[in-house]
Structures are given as structure tokens and as C-alpha cells.
Amino acid sequence: GQQLNQSPQSMFIQEGEDVSMNCTSSSIFNTWLWYKQDPGEGPVLLIALYKAGELTSNGRLTAQFGITRKDSFLNISASIPSDVGIYFCAGRQGGSEKLVFGKGTKLTVNP
Amino acid sequence: GAVVSQHPSRVICKSGTSVKIECRSLDFQATTMFWYRQFPKQSLMLMATSNEGSKATYEQGVEKDKFLINHASLTLSTLTVTSAHPEDSSFYICSASDRGGQPQHFGDGTRLSIL
């Protein structure tokens, strides 16, 4: 099935550093979502984006819905050890309720 | 916020056993729920869309007779893995949204291990 192109695949950073990851697609999406998954658990919603160009923050997290509707990025500022996990982007097209997922970005934060 | 509960969190059973996994929306009604499968170090793959009061819609390549879905009420969907074999071992996750157009919220997943 269709997947979003998510990068980077993994990141190793020092505590306090900023992080950026993104998702791109060849198709247009009308909703972009960012989730975080900890080992052995289900994904938890971080940010939802509904309009092209929309920039939304949730604490230290900021995400944007690309103006072309084919991409989105997630930034994490001043990373802390509990930011460790796998971050997934997900998109929804047209009138469908189905989500298309990226392959994930595994974040490791060194104290 | 919308809370989705999944049970059991872990199942270990012998080959040939059928296993039922429950997905409940705790504080909202969900006419649609989704079932995903996730292999180690991989992304979520949609298996089927569960529709309250009607048949589930399965993704291409997913055997509907193998993975039985029942969505008998607005707060409960079940996935039954029939005659499970070791290759069915995986992490199964359900999700639901509290209304159309809203983000899906996920359960905590079920780790299924078939010996």
C-alpha cells in the first residue's frame, strides 16, 4: 500500500538539542498527523494539522502542514531523555478515514 | 480526550488456537474502528476497517476468514485470529476516532505470540 516518505530513519542527539523530521508524498493529503510510539505501546497523538500552511505547537513540539499539501515537518526543541521513541507521520486523503503512515523516525537522546 | 482501551495486552498460546482481541472506546462512540498489524521495527499496516452494524472492510491481502472482525456496538470491536500459527505472531493495534474527520486514537496494542 501507499506509504509516506519519512526521514530521517533514525537520529542520535544530545539532550538539549533541537530535532527536525519530515514526511513527503507524491500525493496530496488533507490531514497530517504526528504520533509518538514507545516500545510495546500504541501510538499517541502529538499534533494534528488540517490546513495547508498551518503551523501548530504542542509544548516543545511544532509541526507544519506544507503549503503544497504534500509534506509536513515536526520539530522538537530542547530535547529531553523522555523524547526517546519512534515518531510517525500519518496522512489522510480526500473523504477517506484511513491513515497512511510513514516508516517512522527513531529518536535517541543521550543525557 | 478520546481514550481507546485494548485487551489483552499480551497473549501467548499454542499453534491452532483462536485468539480474540477487544478494542473499546471508553468515553465516546465509534461507528468506525481500525485494526492494524505492526512487525518489529516497522510501521503500522492497516488490516481492516471495522464498521458498527455491518461487515468489516479488509485491505488487500488480508484474509477475512483468518482475521474475523465483529463490531457489535458503538464502543466495542473485536478481532479474532482464527487457528493462529507462528507467522501470525505480531503486535496488533486498534484505533478509533470520536467523529468523522478527527484524528484516530490508538489502543495500547496486543502482543500476540504463537508457539
Features:
A: 111 residues, 6-stranded mixed sheet, B: 115 residues, mainly beta, 4-stranded antiparallel sheet, 11 strands, 0% helix, 51% strand
Strand content of chain A: over 45%
Q: What oligomeric state do the depicted chains represent? A: heterodimer
Number of helices of chain B: 0
Q: Could you give a short account of the major beta sheet of chain A? A: 6 strands, mixed
> Which pair of protein chains has the largest interface, and what are the residue counts?
A-B, 20 and 26 residues
Helix-strand pattern of chain B: EEEEEEEEEEE
Mind explaining what this structure looks like?
- The complex is a heterodimer of chains A (111) and B (115).
- With 111 residues, chain A is mainly beta.
- Chain A has strands at residues 5-7, 10-14, 19-24, 31-37, 44-49, 55-58, 61-65, 71-76, 85-92, 100-101, 105-110.
- In chain A, strands 2, 4, 5, 9, 10 and 11 form a 6-stranded mixed sheet that branches. A 5-stranded antiparallel sheet of chain A has the order 1-3-8-7-6, with no helix packed on it.
- The model of chain A has no long low-confidence stretch (mean pLDDT 95).
- Chain B is built from no helices and 11 strands.
- In chain B, the strands form 2 sheets. In chain B, strands 2, 4, 5, 6, 9, 10 and 11 form a 7-stranded mixed sheet that branches. Chain B has a 4-stranded antiparallel sheet with strand order 1-3-8-7, with no helix packed on it.
- Chain B is mainly beta.
- Chain B is globular.
What's a concise summary of this model?
The complex is a heterodimer of chains A (111) and B (115). Helices cover 0% and strands 52% of the residues of chain A. By secondary structure, chain A is mostly beta strands.
List the helices and strands and how they pair.
The complex is a heterodimer of chains A (111) and B (115).
Chain A: E1 5-7, E2 10-14, E3 19-24, E4 31-37, E5 44-49, E6 55-58, E7 61-65, E8 71-76, E9 85-92, E10 100-101, E11 105-110
Parallel strand pairs in A: 2-11
Antiparallel strand pairs in A: 1-3, 3-8, 4-5, 4-9, 6-7, 7-8, 9-10, 9-11
Chain B: E1 4-7, E2 10-13, E3 19-25, E4 32-38, E5 44-51, E6 57-58, E7 67-73, E8 76-81, E9 90-96, E10 105-106, E11 110-114
Parallel strand pairs in B: 2-11
Antiparallel strand pairs in B: 1-3, 3-8, 4-5, 4-9, 5-6, 7-8, 9-10, 9-11
